[in-house]
């Protein structure tokens, strides 16, 4: 009887993934700039909706954080005033001055590490390729912060 042999092509995934950019590994082989896949109205809608959601969440989290920090300072002042805690203000002032000096020292160098520079360049390339989507996101973010 005739026995049919199946032949398979071997794919070396390690070699294949070395040649692919990270975003293609994460999203899909067909992922590129959004301008290649969607029209202008869709890009604006996607950017606007995601921006609005992000802005709205930032606004709510920001209010919560401000309330927590302000309430914490308020409770510390009450505890200090009533004598439950005692603050050594000279020590606080000395530590703040030391921190200022360290900040001045570190900001005088003002050089980015190569890793940070490559990530910044990557973000700039993404923003240039997806300028409509980015514009929609920025507008939506501002609207989300205002609502």
From TrEMBL:
<keyword id="KW-0804">Transcription</keyword>
<dbReference type="GO" id="GO:0000422">
    <property type="term" value="P:autophagy of mitochondrion"/>
</dbReference>
<dbReference type="GO" id="GO:0005634">
    <property type="term" value="C:nucleus"/>
</dbReference>
<protein>
    <recommendedName>
        <fullName>FUN14 domain-containing protein 2</fullName>
    </recommendedName>
</protein>
<comment type="function">
    <text>Binds directly and specifically 1,2-Diacyl-sn-glycero-3-phospho-(1'-myo-inositol-3',4',5'-bisphosphate) (PIP3) leading to the recruitment of PIP3 to mitochondria and may play a role in the regulation of the platelet activation via AKT/GSK3B/cGMP signaling pathways. May act as transcription factor that regulates SREBP1 (isoform SREBP-1C) expression in order to modulate triglyceride (TG) homeostasis in hepatocytes.</text>
</comment>
<keyword id="KW-0805">Transcription regulation</keyword>
<keyword id="KW-0539">Nucleus</keyword>
<keyword id="KW-0812">Transmembrane</keyword>
<keyword id="KW-1000">Mitochondrion outer membrane</keyword>
<dbReference type="InterPro" id="IPR007014">
    <property type="entry name" value="FUN14"/>
</dbReference>
<keyword id="KW-0597">Phosphoprotein</keyword>
<keyword id="KW-0472">Membrane</keyword>
<dbReference type="Pfam" id="PF04930">
    <property type="entry name" value="FUN14"/>
</dbReference>
<comment type="similarity">
    <text>Belongs to the FUN14 family.</text>
</comment>
<keyword id="KW-0496">Mitochondrion</keyword>
<dbReference type="GO" id="GO:0005741">
    <property type="term" value="C:mitochondrial outer membrane"/>
</dbReference>
<keyword id="KW-1133">Transmembrane helix</keyword>
């Amino acid at each position: 009887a005739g026995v049919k042999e199946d032949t398979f092509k071997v794919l070396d995934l390690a070699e294949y993934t070395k040649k692919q950019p990270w975003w293609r590994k994460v999203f899909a082989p067909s992922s590129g700039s959004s301008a290649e896949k969607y029209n202008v109205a869709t890009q604006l809608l996607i950017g606007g909706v995601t921006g609005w959601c992000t802005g709205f969440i930032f606004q709510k989290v920001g209010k919560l954080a401000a309330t927590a920090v302000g309430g914490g300072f308020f409770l510390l002042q009450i505890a200090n005033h009533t004598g439950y805690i005692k603050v050594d203000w000279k020590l606080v002032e000395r530590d703040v001055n030391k921190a200022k000096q360290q900040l001045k020292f570190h900001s005088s160098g003002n050089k980015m590490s190569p890793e940070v520079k490559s990530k910044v360049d990557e973000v700039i390339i993404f923003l240039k390729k997806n300028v409509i989507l980015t514009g929609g996101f920025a507008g939506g973010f501002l609207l989300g912060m205002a609502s």
